[in-house]
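## tool: complex_structure
## caller: assistant
## args:
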Amino acid sequence: MQPPKIAIQNIVKTFVKDKAPFVVLNDFSIDIQQNEFVTIVGTSGCGKSTLLNIVGGLADSTSGQVLIDGNPVQGPGRDRGFVFQSYSLFEWLTVEKNIFFALKKSPLSPAEKQDIVTEYIDIVGLNGFEKAFPKQLSGGMKQRVAIARALVYKPEVLLMDEPFGALDAQTRGMMQELLLKVWESHKTTVLFITHDVDEAIFLSDRVIVMSARPGTIKMEARVEIPRPRSYEALTTPYFIDIKRQVFDSIREETIKSMTTS
Amino acid sequence: MPDKHPVRPTRVGKKSKYFALREEIPHNLYIFLGVCFIAAILIAWEIITRAGLVRPLFLPRPSAIILEGIRQVQEGILHVDASASIYRIVIGWAFATLVAVPIGILMGNFKFVEGLLEPFVDTVRYMPVVALIPLTILWAGIGDFQKFLILFIGTFFQQVLMVMDNVKQVPMDLIRVGQTLGLSRFEILRTIVLPAAFPGIWDTFRITMGWTWTYLVVAELVAAENGLGRRIMDAQRYLATDTIIFGILFIGFLGLITDYIFKISGRILFKWTQGH
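## result:
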């Protein structure tokens, strides 16, 4: 069998707060296969973003390790693209230049880069906005630029930290469909963080529910909805059945975290 | 049947729309108000002095100030003074800025540098610049270099902290984007942090340039042959109140122009900061 694309092994993360150790992640392990779409859901403060930062190499773990294709992560790198909730666009650059920026370290010729940038602007549907500055765009459009910027250099893994968390419900739905469309045509391995259960099930092959702090795996659900998926999947009995299981599981943890902290 | 409860228009219209909380007012009115206030002060000033309520020694008439300005222009004094002062300000400020920007950027991004320099900068920042005049003369003589030094000290230690703050305003996530794209620390500073902080730094330039102007008189206090500040200090000796007031107003006027130059150039340079 092929080795997993991402192997998260026995990750422990503790902070020291007011001179007392504070366990955020406790022995968290999971394998993610090539081109798999995995979403981690959990209550706020369960350590899911910390986990993603560790996979991204933006934070250190206290113990345990993350392997990408069998190689331990030792810091951020171009094999892992990152999309943040805060859009994090370069506001002084146009849409086009923002996406271009991600190709800075690419060995391609400027003409080839331009072609790829144009292709990705097309994929995320921002034609006509190439020369616009981020301040002139809506939240959904900004996040489309961020997604294009994270995909354009074809990283092995895409890490997404609640990317649609700041969007209104309607825009969020459209963005989920767009992300699926892009992902289905340009397959890559995705590790996605959210607290929105619908979003998690709709997008993923596998949904992982994280326990309240210290974070470990509470339950795992496979989502066997055939692809390409459309929003109609959201109201099927199958979807609602999984949703009930995930909800029950998260609810228990939410109650736990509310009574302990 | 007539309606018993006619719909009344909402009462918002009855209150003055010019005093709605935080609402915009017409742009022309906004400008007009500022001009009116200054004009009102000038008229009050003219009336008080014309009525002889204050002796000209304490407060000469506005017309006397204008005549003093005309005299200075005709005798060529104003031109010489202004060139000398502007030269000192530009050099002193530019020197401070050239040092403050790189150091401020380092302090804002590396806790190591911040820890190293901040206590020192904070200490010097509170030292009275006027009290440093004897030392600067001892070290730098009485030429223009001593003036630059005073302006540098007055500007740099404030400016460096402000640049540090400007840089710290750049969100960590932007730096993280750079890291995930495989950029080196230096590349992140140059291609992400610097452009992101630039509008803020430009505003710091505008504000600190104002402070450099306020230190002009201090810089020209000792052994200056000419300059706008020097003219004011000389006039003190002869109780030439009109010269003093004209000098102060003229410095204020040049400061205002500098401010506008920075504001307008900033708007052109940083078009991207404007939304829809």
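## assistant note: The radius of gyration of chain A is 19 Å. Residues 177 and 230 of chain A are 7 Å apart (CA to CA). Handing back to user.
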